[in-house]
Amino acid sequence: MDIIVMIPSLNPDRSLIDYVESVANEDFNKIIVINDGSSEKYDEIFSCISKIKKCVVLSHECNKGKGRALKTGMEYILKQNPKCTGIVTVDADGQHKLSDILSVAAAVEENDNRLVLGSRDFDLPNVPRRSYLGNKLTSCVFAAMFGQKLMDTQTGLRGIPMKIVPELLEINGERYEYEMNMLIECRRKKIEIYEIPIETVYIDNNGSSHFRPVVDSVKIYVLIFKSVLSFIFTSISCTLLDLTLFTLLARFILPYDFAYRIQTATVMARVVSSSVNFVINKNVVFHKKGHLRSSAIKYFCLAVVQMLISANAVNCLFHLLQWHEVIIKVVVDAVLFFINYNIQKKFIFKK
């Protein structure tokens, strides 16, 4: 089997030695163990592992995070074994059964164009509550944002074909967020993500995990919502520009008794703010390459429709409610914001 097993590890117990030996007894090309800055008292464990057949130990002088450990292993494999079929990443806590490792490896050999996930069943009674809630929530959010429902977005058992390793090495993230970013980039680049059900094992209620629930969870969700957060920031900035121009035009520049004062102010302000927003969304938020003319036509058609809806809705509500026109505009545009994001993501700047 032309598959290399890669195991990132931080301060492991001695059971890792037996675990690596059991993996080495199978028909794998090589086993790479990455010592991610473990303290000196664990040196003996890694020394024993380095003596196991087909096993190589790579070390970080200090802890750099799981993402960096995975990258260190992939960089080594890319240089030393570039023609192997793929890599299977395995957690060092022994919670991945040997039979499941073999199943993921076999799936990579069957199809080397897809990322394979060994996915756990979180509906089982032995799953810790924090793991159940965290994974269920993340799976639902990932499905909503990226269009694929995954059983287990945080699994460490993954089959990576060598074809996509260079692309994965370019992905940002040094700690646990790297694994989530890997899934996001695969969806964006239309790399198939294939799941294989595996046995759900938790040793000592997952007490050996180095996952930091608050810090690492925040990093993961920032990655998931990165495009939305960028879109929100850009939209707020352009909305403030639009609102400022609208206020200047409607309150100070255009005659107050002008019948189409609100509509004219809306159109003029929107032309300027939409032009700025288009450039930023295309190049920064959605990273759309090429097709400038096509994207621009679609974007400004959307902007015109949204502008007409906004102008007429603000005008109608102004005469109906007799509220301040600026306050009404803020409420109307807030509703249109969410519709606008989804249209731009799915149709205008779709990759």
Topology summary:
Blueprint: E1 3-9, H1 15-24, E2 30-36, H2 43-50, E3 55-60, H3 66-80, E4 86-89, H4 98-110, E5 114-119, H5 129-146, E6 158-161, H6 165-169, H7 177-188, E7 192-197, H8 213-224, H9 226-253, H10 261-285, H11 292-321, H12 325-348
Parallel strand pairs: 1-2, 1-4, 2-3, 5-7
Antiparallel strand pairs: 4-6, 5-6
Helix pairs in contact: 1-2, 7-8, 8-9, 9-10, 9-12, 10-11, 11-12
Give an overview of the whole structure:
With 351 residues, the protein is of the alpha/beta class. It has two domains: 3-224, Alpha-Beta Complex (Spore Coat Polysaccharide Biosynthesis Protein SpsA, Chain A), CATH 3.90.550.10; 227-348, no CATH class. 57% of the residues lie in helices and 11% in strands. It has twelve helices and seven strands. Helix 2 links the parallel strand 2 (30-36) and strand 3. The longest helix is centred in the C-terminal third of the chain and has 30 residues, at 292-321. It is elongated. It starts with a strand and ends with a helix.
By CATH, the topology of the largest domain is Spore Coat Polysaccharide Biosynthesis Protein SpsA, Chain A
Number of helices: 12
Query: Roughly how much helix do the residues carry, as a percent range?
Result: 55-70%
Shape field: elongated
Quickly count the domains: 2
Rounded Rg: 26 Å
Could you state the order of secondary-structure elements as H and E?
EHEHEHEHEHEHHEHHHHH
Strand arrangement within the widest β-sheet reads 3-2-1-4-6-5-7
Name the average pLDDT: 84
According to CATH, the homologous superfamily of the largest domain is Spore Coat Polysaccharide Biosynthesis Protein SpsA, Chain A
Major beta sheet, specifics?
7 strands, mixed
User: Spans with pLDDT under 50 lasting ≥5 residues?
Assistant: none
